[in-house]
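Protocol step 4 of 6: record predicted structures for both targets in the notebook before any analysis. Target 1:
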Amino acid sequence: MKLENALSPMIRNRSILTQTVELEARELIKKIKQLKLDVINQRIEKKAISLIRPEVLDSWIRSFNYGLSVYDYNYAPALDKDALQQRCQEKASLLESAEPFIQQLSTMLTDSQCIILLSDEAGSMLRVLEGSKNLEDQNKRFKLVAGSIWNEATVGTCAHGISLIHGIPMQISGPEHYCEKYDDIFCSSAPIFDGNHNLSGTLSIVSPSFHQQNAHSLGLVVSMVWGIQKDIQMGFNKELLHLTLDSADKGVMTINKSGIITQANTMANSFFQQLLEHELIGMPYQSVLGPLPFIESVLKNSQAVFDTEVYLERWNQRITMLSVRAILDNAGQNLGLVLAFKKNGLFRKSSSKGHNLAAKFSFADILGDAPDLLDNIDVSRRFSRLDANILIQGESGTGKEMFAHAIHQESRPDGPFVAVNCAAIPSTLIESELFGYEAGSFTGAEKQGRRGKIELAHGGTLFLDEIGDMPLELQPVLLRVLDEKRVMRLGSSLYLPVDFRLISATNHDLSQLVESQRFRQDLLYRLQVLQINIPPLRNRGQDIILMARHFAQKIAAKQGIEVPELSDALLMALLNYDWPGNVRQLENTILYAVNVCRGSIVGPQHLPANIQEEVQHLIADTAEPASKNLPIKEIEKIFIQDALLQSNHNISDAALRLNMSRSTLYRKIKEYQLKTK
């Protein structure tokens, strides 16, 4: 914003002919007051007004929406004595740097009727300097004292209030204030930023008379603020030098409280020069490093983090963060942080994108045409678009994890996919696996500590398989993580914010576990916001044949052999087996059968012994296809569907495969209401 744009129109439009000043001023005041009423009462659109600056127009509307009165004093609340004292201690650096300039300003304005104000970033007055007894008496009607919280929400439109919101110098005159009680007040204000570019407060010159200020008032307050900021910057640089003396051979960056990179040494710039098209300074750290929970924690809680390895997904690189430390002023206030990473091995190429945290399957990888399965895929796709917890239920081996992978690919494809099998980890270790631990937390712990699976899932998906086997004592801890979206490592007192989508799966009836007091009901409610029930393989009909052929082709390709033919007797046996292990058991069965078979046709005699026992009647007499689980007509329908699929819906080829005439096949297709191309 150009400085001349910060000037009030009361100054810009002032006539150089002194005899017309009063008349012009009165007319301008009247016009501005009417425009203000028209704007807040929605009688005129903002774009139709050229006299009033956009920042002032917006401020009028916000002030009205705060419920403040145009006509009455809007007295500001004030900090009590103890709260003011504490605030002054917190802002000691600002007060110390500003005091010489305030005194200099006071001397310069001795002959002027002016009040000097120093506020913090919330609008709380830290210093109120009145130049004369007359000004003290006038100021009593406004109740403007040290500790008063003057900002847009408490008193309406004012110069330093707009400076705080927009971070720009601002001059407000008379009727530009929201409250008409300030029609005689004139104020020039400028924002003060600390050494790490955080908004720290404002400096203002206030006069109770329009004639006491001019364009030079704004220039004067801006020049004083520059001096204050230079003094603050010197203190910041001294602290920064102290923090980085031991980092000369390392990359160093400073980040302010808003997450913006404010400084970077030569080493840091050279690290990222090959990856970025412009300088680091001014960029949000997330654009360079990605979202990192521990950086947010240091910005918020000032607790340092050391020796943490970071995977930069955008660049497919890894760096070791040696230290992330808060920058504190002499009053202990957090100004941001400085992070350092060593030159050695900064860019170590990872073996694959996302390391081992990438999803492996999409919905296209889920095979099957069974109506129940297709319904589940459709529901899962729609659930993917909702950022809510999902519970997947189904027997072991039905493909619950494939659905979790696919949902992740649809909802958070750029984030990590972290899977944890709650039944496969010993109960004594699952806590450290999930939540991570600090160095030395327990005997056998890695000396540098370890990030937990929840922390690793930040920005992506956490998949908790066999959630019903999670130890009861850990369930309230998981519930707290879901509620608060933050996690604490074992042996730490620092909470790390985490953002992940939770997908859990189980083959148990969790409601029964709740009744037997082996699972928390409140956790169950959080897990099953959205629910998916995957059908068992035995209820999926032709999918058994479809998947058996797929597994045979996959195994043959992997072993470099010709794809074997699956005999009708084998397919009949597969259709009539219960498949308690579902898809996983079917894949293992086909692997066994293909490798046991010495010819080109796999038959039921090549099945594992336990399955042969179940389907012995089919092996003994393949001429009469008996049925254990499926009716004959259903089996016939499945074989016709399979033949049509294998022949790409060529009727002649399908009839030949089925050893029936074309007319009979047409009749069967009509009878079973099968689709043909």
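Target 2:
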Amino acid sequence: MKRLSEQPWFAASQGEMRQVGRLLVVFGLLGVVAGAWAVGFVEMVEVLADWLRWPVDRDAPFRTAWPQGVGWLAVVLPAAGGLVVGVVCSRFAPEAMGPGSGHVIDAYLRHGGELRRRVPIMQTFASVVTLGTGGSGGVEGPVSHIAAGLGAWFGRVFGLNAAERRVLMMAGGAAGIGAVFNAPMASAIFTAEVLYAEMDIEHEVLVPAIIASTVAHASFGAIRGQSPLAVPEVHFSHGAELLAYLALAAVLALAALLFSLLFRRVRRALGQGARFPLWARPALGGLGVGLVGLAIPQAMGAGYGIVDLAFGGVGAWALLGLALAKMLTTSLTAGSGGAGGLFAPSLVIGGALGGVVGHVTAALAPGLAVSPSAFVVVGMAGFFAAVANAPLSTVIMVAELAGSYELIVPALWTCTLAWLLSRHVSLFDQQVPTRMDAPFRLSDMMGAVLHRIPVREALDGERPITVPPDLPLRALVERFAHSSQAAFPILDPQTERLLGVIDGRQLRRTLAESGVDTLLIAHDFQSPALVVRADETLFEATSRMAASGFDEVVVVEPDDPGRLVGLLSRRQVVNAYHRRMLERAPDLPAEDDDPSGDTDLADAVARGGVLVDVDASTPDEAIAEMVRRAELPAETDRVGLLALLRAREALGSTGVGDGIALPHPHADDLGAIDRPRVVIGLLRAPVDWSAYDGKPVETVCMLLSPSGDTHLALLGALARALHDPTLRKMLAQRSAAKHIVAYLRQLDA
């Protein structure tokens, strides 16, 4: 979004005021639409539940068994709902499966605030079916995803740029939560905070999110009325109680780790397991939910009935069992692809655990006269702070839930400590550490640097190899074979003026034809030159490269477009960028820059392994899936590694042709990856990787090695090995990793 000037508001220009007014109208309208859509969504969930005679869990009494003749529904309905969701969504919108918050975070950080138009419709359908049939999830997460999709749609309708679309999408997400949850301020802060794993906040999102969330909350209440949780009177009266809240923070952090591990294990085995077709996975998860719910009915649905039980004085052991059961059913629902939110279940789990600690504290220290209900409220916020890396918004949530600031001190204490104790735990893999790590911000920063470097500064001073138009094909091929240039300018022999360039792709196709090599000259391969003036910026040059698909651009004099200055390659652009960044970097003590010498390709592949049936439809998905599945040291920062790979991919496609891609991060330090690894991914279906020859990629070889001589040596060895026909055949036949490594050793010998 455009920043307002630093002047007082009354001194702002008319254009700025119009911009503010326009965005206020857009955010307000988004809040109204999100609130109305949320009303319809909640009504549909309840209508389906009533039609199926499914008990509304918030009003259900505590029970240990289903009424006569109803128990079998607990198994059948969630599985049937999961089957419907799987069949429909796998065909039309796979992103509507599973918790939607991760898709919103990813769209904001990496895709310019773009969500497909069908997302609101498909997410509504999938979530209504999942929740209406007893899946373990809440309405807040799905409504947030739906409203974020509406925000993305608004961005397209109003013709907003990428920065404005990102903000509008997150404002929609805040509006969705604010509409159905009685905490509009906490909802707004949460959407600005949940993007990052560290204690950071996207301040550009905050004000728009507050506007949209408040309007959505008011719209929802005006139509349907608000039904907040019935929180009994709570109090915090003695500083010694903070010791008990310290224990609560420790319990919540441990539970957050358990919940995260359980969710990821289910998602890896079921939601992402290649053994099961995509459409069947939510049904299997629903079947598991039903089996758990057959014994513990309260573990199904949103689970707010568990919070009511915690307020009502149910014993500590019962609450602990309910919390563990809720973790399991939520993991089975969301981890298998069921469209249920994680917001409500996390609050429920935290509330139950808060009740456990509250009861234990009351029994062990009766003199403190603690309020167990206060522990329930603080536990709800503290657990969500731990699993979502959102300690700020959850503190505000306590005040909004309790209707007072009575619990602000224990909430600050508990949420902060729970977050600190579980900083590396999160349900959202899409988060990045801080604002500076956001991929779009990295791209903006690189663009800002490239805007400041003229093309002439990036040239290495070497005169490119040129050819006359009458050069025979045999001589032309000879020059190609002995040069690293990808393009050869054609110059007029008399005037030395630029006529065009050799189209290398057409030359390769011609070489496959027999009997024509004596008939052709350089002029037959001439095509218009992709040119850039020497006084233009590297940003303009790389933009033309990206638009054309060429890796080199011809540089001409600013005042004479026919006079050749040189050739600019992607490599030169990257080198110029790094030089400029090093010039601005502070002086650092010199370090030993000797390479490790660990350049054995077979050993690198043995450490990295071979991943079979990598399921992806885009290069980004393929890289992300390989990072997720790769055998890496336990302490590896996979999120940071993925960001490095994406940044390298943004510099230019790593599709090297012939069905091969070689993604490799550009970094001097890869943290826990201290020895080079090559992870080979065999894609389930070919993926368009923007390779120079137009061929889709089937084999992805991800080289993980710090930049330097070792990196370059392994990259060259890998490129050479992949042209060996026997190795290519072994990869196509999905040979075992040990056989591939053995053959690489044989090649090296």
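Step 5 preliminary note on target 2. Residues 14-51 form the longest helix (38 residues). Residues 450-581 form a domain with the CBS-domain fold (CATH 3.10.580.10).
Proceed to step 6 after PI sign-off.
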